[in-house]
Amino acid sequence: MLAIVAGGGIAGLTCALSLHQVGIACRVYEAVPHLAPLGYGINLQPNAVRELFALGLGERLSEAGILTAELAMYNKHGQLIWTEPRGRAAGYRWPQISISRGTLHEILLGAIRERIGADAVVTGRRLSSFEQRGDRVIARFVDPKGEPAGEAEGDVLIGADGIHSAVRRQFYSGEKAVFDGYLHYRGVVETEPYLTGASMVVVGHRHHRAILYPVARRPGGKVMVNWLAYTRIPPGSPPMEAWDTAADRQACVDSYKGWTYPWLDVRGLFAATPAEMVLQLPNVDRDPVPRWSFDRVTLIGDAAHPMQPVGAQAGSQAIVDGRVLAASMLESRNPVEALTRYQDRRIAAMNDMVLRNRSLGLETILQIAEERAPNGFAHIHDVLSQQELEATALNYKKAAGFDVEMVNSRDSFVELPARAS
Ligand SMILES: Cc1cc2nc3c(=O)[nH]c(=O)nc-3n(C[C@H](O)[C@H](O)[C@H](O)COP(=O)(O)OP(=O)(O)OC[C@H]3O[C@@H](n4cnc5c(N)ncnc54)[C@H](O)[C@@H]3O)c2cc1C
Known about the structure:
It is built from 12 helices and 19 strands.
């Protein structure tokens, strides 16, 4: 059995490692000519981290990232709305890890090269089309200049090619990305630790908010803090595709006047970020689709369920997809059945997650607080009851598959058969 994986991002690499773990050969084809450690911060929830531990990568990731201890949410006046422990502090058997996406990617890639081989990831090969012929799938590629660059034949094709997936496009031609009118700036900056030293904070409300969390320790006790700042899109917005459009840092800093709090100088952090490190991205996702698996072809990660960056879910869910797909292929060596089984286990929850994130997910409590008390409050319970706060937090975690009980009580998605001694 040979699996062709199109896309060497977080989903594709995790899936390849998981397929290898269950004894399925695979090869990853990645569009970019050189894989570089790209991206800023990404958050891995305990449901995904336990799967990375099961792949033997937990220690490396824990050392490279920050074990997130707390999520704290504030209104724009800097008043605390909600705080909850995270990761091991919340009782999970595995941590929540905030890490540079580039570092995560490097660790996954290093493991693939060690375990599967130096040629397991072929770069400079963008999937352009595919065809199912009998019990084979033929994938066709182009090089970085767009010239034909050969084909590969396998038993299954896994589309892990991100939000602008070419695999998905072949099933859903004419589909458009959905842009919600918001822009988010992203940056990463070295600074002193704040709050617990491992706190993820979300400040503001739907129309204007900021998310910050440390992703790495630096010599001398400092930390690298990843930040996102949301604002309504100004005229002359960037193209909807790019992850790497340079931003006007000053425009971002100017729109956060007054966001200086005793517990963190949010605006000051934006201003201290090297200008070339500030990027801008439009907030895009896609409408849920009814199917990901079509005979011997399926979709995972952002190709399957691109979602807005709310609730720190995209990376974690991409990892879980790869694990559930490998588990399904371990259970049934009939590829068509395995791909259907994977889809059936994941699609309803992920389609729900895409829609929940459009309505802010857990961060919805920020918007309620803003609507009920735009000028702030004497006590948060005058605005939102403890019950409302707790229920919102728990509902989101349950829907995303990472509430403490659920994660701690289940087995890893991939349960290897015991070896005969
Ligand atoms: C360069 C980059 C930087 C990012 N930075 C961040 C970040 O800082 N924080 C964050 O939360 N999320 C970031 N993301 C998104 C995040 O990685 C995903 O939302 C999430 O991890 C799901 O991963 P994925 O593998 O499904 O998609 P992605 O991580 O987007 O990976 C998709 C991969 O497929 C490749 N590809 C695309 N089209 C083709 C094709 N036709 N054929 C072959 N390969 C193809 C892409 O080059 C990419 O390597 C970034 C994504 C990219 C590509």
